[in-house]
C-alpha cells in the first residue's frame, strides 16, 4: 500500500514537472520575442502546477524549486520591460488579471520585487500590500511555500537602517511589522497542517511538518539580520510578539522549534537583557514540550558568552542571571511532574556549567545547584536510567574541569550526596575521573580531613558498595586499584603530625577493601609510612626516652607499630610473599632508625611467613635471597641476634629442594659473615666454610645428575663459586688465598674437559670471561697485581 502511494506520488511529480517545463518553454519563447502578454499567460499556466494537493512537502519542494528558478528569469524580464518604458504600476495591475489566485500571487510577488527596486512607491506600502494579499492562500503547504517565496524576494528590499529602501523615521518598524506578520501567518499555516487528513496519518504529517519547519524559522533569522532592531525594539516589540505567537499556537512541535530558533538566532546580550521575559514563556508551553533542551541550549549560549570575555560578566551580575535561571528551572520542574529524572538532571547540569563560567568564585551557588539536584534525586531513589547517570557524571565532572582542583570540589557539601545516587559501576567511573584529575593537576591533598572527604567520594574503588559482588574484568579491576595506589603515594604533608593522621585515615579506609584490594593498597601505604620514618630520622629522637612520648607525638616506633598491624592483615589475605617483602623493607627502615628490637621483630615475622606460608620452591628461592640480602645490610643487631638470624638463613639455604638453588643460597650466605666497613662483621673462616659447603653441594648436584641422566650436567655452579672466591679474595679475606683459587681453577678446567660434562656455551663464556678478568687484574700492577700474580690463569 505504502509502495503504491510512493509510486503514485512519483508519477504525479513527474507529470507536474513535465507540465511546468512545457509552459516554461513557451514562456521563454515569449520572453525572447518580448511578448509580455504571452509571457504572463504561460507563466501563469506554469505556476498552476503548484496548485496540486497530491504531493508530500518533500516532493512539492522539488517542484517549487524548479518554479523558483523560472520566476528569477521572469523577474529579470520584468526589469528589462521597465527599462524599455513599460510602467511598473501597469505591470503590477496587469498580473492581477491571472485566472487562478496562486499563480496570480506568485506573479504579484515577482513584480512587487521589481516595483520596490524601482522606488516608484515606498517599500513599506508594497510589502504591506503583498503580505495582506497572500492571505488569499489558506492551504497549509501551498501557503507556506508562497510566503516563503515572498520572504525570499523581499529580504534584501526591507526598509532597514542604511538600506537603499530606507524611508522615514518609522521605517524599521515597518520592516519588522512585515516580517512579524509574515511569520505569524506562516506559523498558523504550519500548525494547521496537523489537522489536515485522517487521524491515522498523524505521525506521517508530523514528519512532514518537521521537514517544513525551516520555512517558518527563516523569518526569525531575517528579523535578527535587520540592522535597526536594537535591544529596545527587541525587548518592546520583537520578542513579545514572537513569544505571543509561540505560546498561543499551543503546538508541541512549533513551540519547541521556535523557542530554539529564538535562542539560536538573536544575540547573546539580547537574551541576557530579556532573560525574565524569555524564561517566563517556558512554563506556559505545552507540558509535552522538551523544555529541558530549550533551557539547556539557552544556558549553553550564555555560558559561552560569559567565557568569551571577562568584560561581559558584570552584565550577568546586573541582571541577576543565576537567580532567574535557578527559579525558572525550579518552576519548570515543579510544573512538569512527569518530567523524567534525566530531564531534571540535564537542567541542573547546564545550570552548574553556567554558574561555573559566570560565577567561578561563588562556590555557594555551585553547591546550591548540587543541593537542588540532590533534593530531586532523593525523591526518586537509586537511578536505573543510563542517560540520567551520564548526566550526573557530567554534572559532577564540571567542577573538576573548571577548577582543576579536587580540593575545591571537596568544599561542596552536596557533591558526595549527589554521587551516592550513581550505581556502583558509574560510581567507580566517577571515582576514577576524580583520581585522574588529581594526577593530571598534581593536586596536593594535605590534611587528614580532606583525605577523609576524598575517600568518601571514591568509596566505589576502595570497597564494594552495598554488598555488590558483580563480576568485574580482571584488567579493569587492576587498573582501578593501581590508580588508588598512585593516589595514596600523592598524599603528603611536611608536618609529621599531620602526615601521620593522613596515614591513619588512609589505613582506616583501605582496611575495609577486602582481600582482593589489599595487595594493591597496602604497599603504597607502607612506603608512605617509611617515607615519614626517614623524615623523622633526621630529627631529635629524645622523646623516645619520655614514657609518654609515643602518645603525645609521632615517632618512628609508633609508625612501626602501625605498620606491623597493617602488614599482618596482608599476610592473612593471603599474600605471604608480598607481606614478607614489606616486613623486610620495614626491618631495613628500623635498622636506619637504630631500633634493634623493632627490626628483629620484623625479621622474625618474615621468617615465620617463610616457614609457614611460602611453599612454592621458586617463591622460596626468591624470598630467601631477599632475606639474605636485607640481613647483610643490617648493622643494628647485636652479636646474639645477628647470629640467630644468620644461623636461620643458612639453615633455610640447606633445605631448599633443588641442589643448584641450595648451592646459590649457601654461597649467598657467605656475605652475611663479611660486611664492608664493619670490622666486627668480618669472619673469614665462616666465609670459607660457606664457600666450601657450596662446592660440596655443587659436586653432589653433579653426581646426582650423573646417576640420573648419565651426564654430570653443566659446570656453571663451579664458575659462579669461583667468582665468589675472587670477590672475597679482593676484599682481603685472609682465608681465601691464591693457592685456593688456583686449585679451584684447575678443578673447573678438569671438569670442563671431562667427557661426562654436558656442553654449556654459557658456562664456557663465563669461565673465559673470569680468566680474562684475572689477567686484567694482574696487568694492573700495584697491590692488586701483586695479589693476583701467583694465580696462573
TrEMBL record:
Membrane topology value: Peripheral membrane protein
Intracellular or extracellular location(s): Membrane
Keywords per UniProt: Membrane, Protein transport, Transport
InterPro entries hit by this protein: ARM-type_fold (IPR016024), Vps35 (IPR005378), Vps35_C (IPR042491)
Primary localization: membrane
Top-level taxon: Eukaryota
SUPFAM superfamilies assigned: ARM repeat (SSF48371)
Pfam families the UniProt entry points to: Vps35
Function: Plays a role in vesicular protein sorting.
Membership in a protein family: Belongs to the VPS35 family.
Annotated PANTHER family: VACUOLAR PROTEIN SORTING-ASSOCIATED PROTEIN 35, VACUOLAR SORTING PROTEIN 35
Protein name per Swiss-Prot or TrEMBL: Vacuolar protein sorting-associated protein 35
Source organism phylogeny: Eukaryota, Viridiplantae, Streptophyta, Embryophyta, Tracheophyta
Amino acid at each position: 500500500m505504502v509502495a503504491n502511494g510512493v509510486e503514485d506520488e512519483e508519477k504525479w511529480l513527474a507529470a507536474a514537472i513535465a507540465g511546468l517545463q512545457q509552459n516554461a518553454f513557451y514562456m521563454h519563447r515569449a520572453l525572447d520575442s518580448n511578448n509580455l502578454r504571452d509571457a504572463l499567460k504561460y507563466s501563469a499556466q506554469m505556476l498552476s502546477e503548484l496548485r496540486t494537493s497530491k504531493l508530500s512537502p518533500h516532493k512539492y519542494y522539488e517542484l517549487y524549486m524548479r518554479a523558483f528558478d523560472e520566476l528569477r528569469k521572469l523577474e529579470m524580464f520584468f526589469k528589462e520591460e521597465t527599462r524599455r518604458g513599460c510602467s511598473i504600476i501597469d505591470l503590477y495591475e496587469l498580473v492581477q488579471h491571472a485566472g487562478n489566485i496562486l499563480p496570480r500571487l506568485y506573479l504579484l510577488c515577482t513584480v512587487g520585487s521589481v516595483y520596490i527596486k524601482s522606488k516608484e512607491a515606498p517599500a513599506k506600502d508594497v510589502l504591506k500590500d503583498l503580505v495582506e494579499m497572500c492571505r488569499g492562500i489558506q492551504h497549509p503547504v501551498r501557503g507556506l511555500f508562497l510566503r516563503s517565496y515572498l520572504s525570499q524576494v523581499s529580504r534584501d528590499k526591507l526598509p532597514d537602517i542604511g538600506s537603499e529602501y530606507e524611508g522615514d523615521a518609522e521605517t524599521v518598524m515597518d520592516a519588522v511589522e512585515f516580517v512579524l506578520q509574515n511569520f505569524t501567518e506562516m506559523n498558523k499555516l504550519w500548525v494547521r497542517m496537523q489537522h489536515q487528513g485522517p487521524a491515522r496519518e498523524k505521525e506521517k504529517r508530523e514528519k512532514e511538518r518537521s521537514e517544513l519547519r525551516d520555512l517558518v524559522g527563516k523569518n526569525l533569522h531575517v528579523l535578527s539580520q535587520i540592522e535597526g532592531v536594537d535591544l529596545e525594539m527587541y525587548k518592546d516589540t520583537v520578542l513579545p510578539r514572537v513569544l505571543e505567537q509561540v505560546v498561543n499556537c499551543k503546538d508541541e512541535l512549533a513551540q519547541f522549534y521556535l523557542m530554539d530558533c529564538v535562542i539560536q538566532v538573536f544575540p547573546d546580550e539580547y537574551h541576557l537583557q530579556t532573560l525574565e521575559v524569555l524564561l517566563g514563556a517556558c512554563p506556559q508551553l505545552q507540558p509535552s514540550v522538551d523544555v529541558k533542551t530549550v533551557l539547556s541550549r539557552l544556558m549553553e549560549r550564555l555560558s559561552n558568552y560569559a567565557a568569551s570575555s571577562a568584560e561581559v560578566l558584570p552584565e550577568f551580575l546586573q541582571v541577576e542571571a543565576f537567580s532567574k535561571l535557578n527559579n525558572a528551572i525550579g518552576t519548570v520542574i515543579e510544573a512538569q511532574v512527569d518530567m523524567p529524572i534525566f530531564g531534571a538532571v540535564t537542567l541542573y547540569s547546564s545550570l552548574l556549567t553556567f554558574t561555573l563560567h559566570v560565577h567561578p568564585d561563588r562556590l555557594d551557588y555551585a553547591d546550591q545547584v548540587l543541593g537542588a539536584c540532590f533534593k530531586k534525586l532523593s525523591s526518586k531513589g537509586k537511578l536505573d536510567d543510563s542517560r540520567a547517570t551520564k548526566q550526573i557524571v557530567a554534572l559532577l565532572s564540571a567542577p573538576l574541569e573548571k577548577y582543576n582542583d579536587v580540593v575545591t570540589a571537596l568544599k561542596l557539601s552536596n557533591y558526595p550526596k549527589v554521587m551516592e545516587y550513581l550505581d556502583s559501576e558509574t560510581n567507580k567511573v566517577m571515582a576514577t575521573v576524580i583520581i585522574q584529575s588529581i594526577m593530571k593537576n598534581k593536586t596536593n591533598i594535605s590534611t587528614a580531613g580532606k583525605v577523609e572527604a576524598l575517600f568518601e567520594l571514591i568509596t566505589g574503588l576502595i570497597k564494594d558498595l552495598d554488598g555488590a559482588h558483580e563480576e568485574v574484568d580482571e584488567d579493569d579491576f587492576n587498573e582501578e586499584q593501581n590508580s588508588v595506589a598512585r593516589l595514596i603515594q600523592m598524599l603528603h604533608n611536611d608536618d609529621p603530625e599531620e602526615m601521620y593522621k593522613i596515614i591513619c585515615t588512609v589505613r582506616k579506609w583501605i582496611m575495609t577493601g577486602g582481600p582482593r584490594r589489599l595487595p594493591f593498597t597496602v604497599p603504597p601505604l607502607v612506603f608512605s609510612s617509611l617515607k615519614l620514618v626517614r623524615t623523622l630520622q633526621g630529627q631529635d629522637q629524645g622523646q623516645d626516652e619520655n614514657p609518654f612520648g609515643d602518645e603525645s607525638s609521632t615517632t618512628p616506633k609508633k609508625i612501626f607499630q602501625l605498620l606491623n598491624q597493617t602488614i599482618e592483615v596482608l599476610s592473612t589475605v593471603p599474600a605471604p610473599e608480598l607481606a614478607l617483602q614489606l616486613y623486610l623493607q620495614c626491618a631495613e627502615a628500623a635498622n636506619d632508625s637504630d631500633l634493634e628490637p623493632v627490626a628483629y621483630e620484623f625479621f622474625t615475622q618474615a621468617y615465620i611467613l617463610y616457614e609457614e606460608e611460602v611453599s612454592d620452591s621458586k617463591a622460596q628461592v626468591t624470598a630467601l635471597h631477599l632475606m639474605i640480602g636485607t640481613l647483610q645490610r643490617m648493622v643494628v643487631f647485636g652479636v646474639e641476634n645477628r647470629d640467630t638470624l644468620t644461623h636461620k638463613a643458612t639453615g633455610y639455604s640447606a633445605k631448599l629442594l633443588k641442589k643448584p638453588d641450595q648451592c646459590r643460597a649457601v654461597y649467598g650466605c657467605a656475605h652475611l659473615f663479611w660486611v664492608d666497613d664493619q670490622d666486627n662483621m668480618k669472619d673469614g673462616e665462616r666465609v670459607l666454610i660457606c664457600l666450601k659447603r657450596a662446592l660440596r653441594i655443587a659436586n653432589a648436584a653433579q653426581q646426582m645428575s650423573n646417576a640420573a641422566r648419565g651426564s654430570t650436567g653443566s659446570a656453571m655452579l663451579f664458575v659462579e663459586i669461583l667468582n665468589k672466591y675472587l670477590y672475597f679474595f679482593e676484599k682481603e679475606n685472609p682465608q681465601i688465598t691464591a693457592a685456593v683459587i688456583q686449585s679451584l681453577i684447575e678443578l673447573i678446567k678438569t671438569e670442563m674437559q671431562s667427557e661426562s660434562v654436558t656442553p654449556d656455551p654459557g658456562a664456557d663464556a663465563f669461565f673465559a670471561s673470569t680468566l680474562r678478568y684475572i689477567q686484567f687484574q694482574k696487568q694492573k700492577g700495584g697491590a692488586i697485581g701483586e695479589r693476583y700474580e701467583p694465580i696462573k690463569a
